[in-house]
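Per reviewer request, we include the raw input and output of the structure prediction for the construct analysed in the revised manuscript.
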Amino acid sequence: MADHFTQLISDKIHTAFSPNTAIDSVVPLAGDASTRRYYRVRLVGATAPRSLIVMELPSGSGLPLSSEELAIFKEGPKELPFLNVHRFLTHIGVTVPQLYGRWESDGILFLEDLGDTALWDRVQGLDDNDVLGWYQKTIDELLKLQVHGTEKRDDSCIAFHQRFDFKLYMWEFEHFIEYGLEKRPGARVSAAHADQLRKTFSEIAELLDRQSPCLNHRDYHSWNLMIHDETVRVIDFQDALLAPPQYDLASLLNDRVTDSVIKPHLEERLVRYYLDRKREFNAAAIQGDEFFEIYRLSAIQRDLKVVGRFYYLDQVKGKPGYMKFVPPTVRRLQRNLAQVPQTKTVLPLLQEHFEAMA
C-alpha cells in the first residue's frame, strides 16, 4: 500500500479520535462487485475503537452509484448515496455500521468494524430451527426498514426518488439477454427466441410495475447482513429504492447458494413469517396467494438479472469469481420458472442455453 495513503489514514484518525491514536496495521479486505475498496485498520489508543473499516472511494468518479443501472434515472445524486441513505437508515433505527468520519474530497470514509461473520457464515452447520431463528431476525430488521422507512419517508433521501419501474425491470432483463445469453462465448440465440423472452419479460415487468412500492434495500442478502455481537447489522445499502416488498424478501431467500440452506419448506415458512410479522407491524391485510405470486416473480426477475451480472463481471470487468454461482442460480430459476404460469413457456428456451437446467 502506498505510504501516502497510510499517512492520509493516519492524519484522519488523529482528527476523528485523538493525536495519541496510532495505526497498528492496515490490511486490505477482499473486494466485492463494486468499484470501492476496503481496509481494516487496527488502532492503538485509549479513546479509539480497536479497529475500523476504511472505505476508499473510486478516484475521479464524483458521486458514484454502485449499480450502473441506477444511472437511468433523470437526476444524479447531489450527495454520496452511501452517506445519504446511511443518514436516513440511522434515523429510523436500522442497524447500520456507525460512521466515524467522512472525507469525500480525499476519497475515504471511516466505518465501524463489524467483523467478518456474515449471516451466511453464521448459519453454516446449524439445524433447521436455528437457521429459521437467524433468518427471522433478518426479516424483523427488513420489516423495520420497509415499514418504518416507508412510513417516515424523507424526500431528502435519494432512495425515495428511485423506483423499480417498468424501465428498470426491462433494463435488467435486457442485461440478462445481452450478457447471460447473446454475448456468451459460442452462444447462438435465435431472433425468435429473443423476441419470445422479451415478450414474457415485458409482461412480468408490467405486472411488477403495478405493485405498491415501499422502501427496499435492493441487495438484502446473506452476504450483506453481518452478525456482530449476535445481532444483525445491515451493510451495502447505497442502492436503496422503492420496490414491491417482495423484492428484498426474494433477495434474502434466493441469492447465490442460499437455497442450499433455505430449502423450499423453510422458504415457505419464512415467507409466512414475514406476512405474519408484517401484519403486526402495520395491521394491513395481505392476501397470501397474491403475495406469493409476486414474491416468486421477484425472485425470478432478480435471478435472471444476477446471472447476466455474473457473466458481465466476468467478461467486461475481469472478475470471474462470481461465475461459480451461475449453476446454482439457474437451477433455482428452473424450479421457480416451472411454478409460475407467466414463465412456464420460456423455461424450455432457457434450458437450451444452461447445462445446469438439464
